[in-house]
Amino acid sequence: MRLEIKYKEKTDEALEYLISRIPRELGTSIMCFLNENKYSFINEIRMKKNSFIYLIADSKNVKTDIFVSEACIESTFEALCGGSIYAHYDTIKEGYISVGQGIRAGVCGTAVMDGTLISGIKDISSINIRIPQRIYGASNYIFTLLEKNNFKSSLLLYSPPGVGKTSILRDLVIRLNELATPIRFSVIDSREEIITPHSFCSNCDAFLSYPKGTAIELATKSMTPELIICDEISTEAEAQAVFKASHNGVKLIATTHSSSYNELISKSILEPLLSSNVFDFAIGVSRKYGEKSYKFTLNKLFNEA
Length: 305
What we know:
By secondary structure, this protein is of the alpha/beta class.
């Protein structure tokens, strides 16, 4: 079953916050470019040392005339860290910085190794700043499916990276907070991308910056949720935590990277979850750059005991 859902986007508040955090000259150049070219919203700012900035604006890849020098990328990196690189040491090792307001900056350069482990990154060469969106209506299909089943279904959303699964979760959190009859739910937001100033999370328990597996276990034991929302299940530890939560009676909404249903069911990490009916439905999500809609493919999961 395939369904297409249209949406509208808003990034103003997050963009304003980001501009206040990066070097003033860079922020002014970006805003001038956006205004001159009449772009209504921006999803990503992609910076590479000694090259021009590329944007994803109005869902299109756009080359700007803004040049990024070595000094520019170094000052931007430091500014995104709030002047304290050490405070972001743990996430930098994992390739990103949580900037605040749901903004995440991916960073890459030269890895500093301690045996087989990454102990840091030096000589930053690229920064990819992802700006969160309130995509109004992005979760309509998911919310309706949950509502139809009295919020007692577990769903696994899958797509390649960059399609917008996190944006769907972001909108879903807001919708769940607005329920006239509230449900108890926890949000596992390890990279601080789901909970934003738009979220108004008065009815949810938000686990920010926790390791996902640990946060799922803590939520299950301590917060007695009816539902847990978690982005990007990608490790055995995370899958095991999802399995345990499910077998404690908790429903889950999770996402994972897969380009097709066949790829999804072939992943060894997910096999225990899919074969033991942890999820009721696997939902494929697709969207092309420039399109103002998501397409959903519903796959009902059922295995006889």
